[in-house]
Design brief:
alpha/beta; TIM Barrel; two-stranded parallel sheet; 10 helices; 37% helix
Length: 291
């Protein structure tokens, strides 16, 4: 079963919890004068995104990047791509397009943040060939990586001496549900300007901690392929983003996933249209063959 997938999504309470009190404090201190918004999918390949590409399209990334302003780059989790691949992606996409690559699984899952300095350096060096199109790389830890290894997290963050901002996703519930642990973790992230990732998925509602550590929100939203609820869930996110914007949100990075990815572009288009109407933005609404 895929992460967070459940057999009965219609029985899940998808209500977005109230913000943690510290989120308000983080946003109030940001003094942001405008909101930068990046909304995209997790993949661009035609096999998954059926009903998105017009007939005859061969350059999938090229077309995708005319419709969306960013991509969550999951492919980099599985292997280290050479600089030439990043250079090709850079040349293929238009100005202002952003990539948000996931750091390699060697770092997070195999070595579990131990003795990873050289691997991290290789990752950052290669992805830096995206130049100004490199958004915010993110580190996704394994489900069973818990607070007993907090020292590894501290060392990793202390060693992140790059100009590139970093986001981190923790999946072990004790990082959030143990007050002593969460206080230590969030103090560390805030001190080092590291963004913690919010995951909105059916089977792991405990990850909806709603606690921002920077004025940049990084949201990984996973649809349940349940038409009756997915759009309502996105409506609720529109309201929360509007509230955050009023408080001082500086950047929104919002990525739409599906257990079956076919509907991701359609849901993204829906979310963008609703957000435009709510907060007065003029983001491009992607074209979909189904819409």
């Amino acid at each position: 079963m895929k992460f967070g997938q459940v057999p009965n999504p219609e029985e899940i309470d998808f209500t977005i919890p109230a913000d943690h009190p510290d989120t308000k404090h983080v946003l109030e201190r940001s003094k942001a004068k405008g909101l930068d918004i990046q909304i995209g999918c997790a993949k661009w390949n035609k096999t998954d995104l059926k009903g998105f590409y017009p007939k005859g399209v061969k350059d999938e990334l090229g077309y995708y990047s005319t419709q969306f302003n960013c991509i969550e780059l999951n492919a980099t989790f599985y292997r280290l791509f050479p600089p030439s691949t990043f250079e090709k992606w850079y040349a293929t996409t238009p100005e202002n397009f952003k990539f948000f690559p996931k750091l390699e699984q060697t770092i997070s899952h195999f070595r579990r943040l131990k003795d990873v300095e050289q691997v991290v350096e290789n990752n950052v060096t290669n992805m830096s060939h995206l130049k100004e199109k490199l958004g915010m790389p993110f580190l996704q830890m394994h489900n069973n990586f818990g607070p007993k290894d907090c020292d590894r997290v501290r060392t990793f963050i202390d060693n992140w001496q790059y100009d590139i901002p970093l986001a981190v996703e923790f999946r072990q519930t004790d990082w959030y549900n143990d007050p002593a642990v969460s206080t230590e973790l969030y103090d560390l992230l805030k001190k080092n300007n590291v963004t913690n990732v919010l995951v909105d998925t059916a089977g792991r509602r405990d990850l909806m901690h709603m606690r921002l550590t920077t004025p940049d929100a990084f949201v990984r939203w996973v649809g349940a392929n349940e038409p009756s609820s997915d759009r309502k869930r996105l409506d609720e996110w529109v309201e929360r983003v509007a509230d955050w914007k009023a408080q001082g949100l500086k950047q929104l990075n919002f990525f739409v996933h599906q257990n079956v990815e076919k509907e991701s572009p359609l849901l993204s288009a829906y979310f963008i249209e609703k957000l435009n109407k709510k907060i007065g933005t003029d983001l491009q609404i992607p074209k979909t063959l189904d819409g």
